[in-house]
Amino acid sequence: MSAIRAYLKGLVEEAKKPTSSTLLLAELVPRPQPRRRFEEASLKALAESIRAHGVLEPLLVRPLGDGRYEIVAGERRYRAAQMAGLSEVPVVVLEGLDEKTAQAIALMENLQREDLNPYEETVAVLDLLALELSKSREEVISLLHRMWNEARGKSTRNVAGSPEAQRVEEVFRLLGRMDWSSFVRHRLPLLNLPPDLQEALLEGAIPYTAALELKKVKEEGERRKLLEEAKAGLSLRELKAKVRELLRKEASPPPWHKEVLARLSRLDLEALPPEKRKAVERHLQALAKELGLTRKA
């Protein structure tokens, strides 16, 4: 990672220098990357700025060998330039860039964006760790959980002192946003959100803290109601209070008489044995009489 960090620093400095190199938009190809959504309003604002001032920061690209260039960093500027009606943009062409470094640059560029969605940021961090450790995303998640369990005294595998754990810590130091334990506590749970919460988070309709709070509500109808309130501006403090109340009600058993009434409503008298049916009917008739529910002749 130290080699990649030094290389990235050099690229950042190079990208800040004035450049006279330009390429046609038709020659550029976006690469798959963690930024799944581009806010339409934000793109329009950037397009307006580009119309007025041009593309101020060049795109980082690498040649594909067929006359086209892959966008390593700067896809948002590329899309906004298209929207602004430009035919070409300034670029820095990175010759001889291998796939691993290109992927690291793309991930780092996205992670430096302030408007990157928390869910997408979580996935991007995992992908950066997977790239650094030569592991799958699932293997990285497993490693982080093992580190977390050991830190809490629930495991004695000595993962913390391993080279892999040290590289994980180095990646988080490089990113400078949070440490690995905070990532495990607050970000990994976002991967297991119900579809409705995941969608709201991806749209930017709610903060990730609200999504994690709403995740505690298992009843879909109640969660949907609270989700709409959160979208409408319900504060996190108020949301937590409502969630606590719901969970308290869910944990409390229903009053015994309500349980009896619920079971009676599902009772099929015809299915009972004759003797038991007669006994139940006698009790029901007595109860009806006591409550004044007997039919008048």
TrEMBL record:
SUPFAM superfamilies membership: KorB DNA-binding domain-like, ParB/Sulfiredoxin
SMART domains: ParB
Classification via InterPro entries: Chromosome_partition/occlusion, ParB/RepB/Spo0J, ParB/Sulfiredoxin_sf, ParB_N
Entry-linked Pfam families: ParB_N
Domain ParB-like N-terminal: 21-111
Signal peptide annotation: none
NCBIfam families found in the cross-reference section: parB_part (TIGR00180)
Entry similarity comment: Belongs to the ParB family.
The protein's name in its UniProt record: ParB/RepB/Spo0J family partition protein
